[in-house]
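Try it yourself: sequence plus adenosine-5'-diphosphate, in.
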Amino acid sequence: MKVIAVLNQKGGSGKTTIATHLARALQIGGADVLLVDSDPQGSARDWAAVREDQPVPVVGIDRPTIERDLKSLVRKDFVVIDGAPQAADLAVSAIKAAHFILIPVQPSPYDIWATADLVDLVKQRIEVTDGKLKAAFIVSRAIKGTKISAEIAEALSGYDLPVLESRITQRVSYPSTAAAGTTVNDADPDGDAAREVLALANEIKRLLI
Ligand code: ADP
Ligand code: MG
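Structure, out:
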């Protein structure tokens, strides 16, 4: 079982969008997946509840017991944790449970600066686990045709964590499919949005081997 935690204290960075899509993309790829909503606000649970025939199983664990709860409760191929904003104890609990930490950052310097504390926590954990824990940034809500995304990748290199090659673009299809409790991969499986999500899932799978 591999646990992927999508974390960033900053609200609006795209955690829930990426966590729901990543979970669904891994499932479409044939894996047995659980999505854990660690945000007390419950956005991923709200998303799942829209559809009666929701294919992605979602549970809420919004107490700092994620590591323990997953160990005793779940046997899945992948668990994707949708991170909570501004809850240090929940973030620590998710980091402890994770094999891979995905940090979505919007292409803005404010968002990059705001990840400093999280990066410190993640790096401490990487050291404790002798490098077994992996972590990477993903540029989230990138605006197509702008150079800022490339500049952001460069600015992030100061943090000494890799930046994934795949990125998630700002597209109306993300919020509009979310409103229906579904994903861009369900709405248009061959479209550009679905393709960038599958590229993300595949890149993470490769890095987890
Ligand atoms: P977080 O979970 O980090 O707070 P969300 O995934 O909820 O972030 O995203 C915040 C808002 O931005 C939501 O309204 C969401 O629909 C929108 N959003 C997130 N990612 C994208 C994207 N790639 N394109 C367009 N809108 C997005
Ligand atoms: Mg969220």
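One thing you can check immediately is this: The beta strands are 2-6, 33-37, 58-60, 78-82, 100-105, 134-139.
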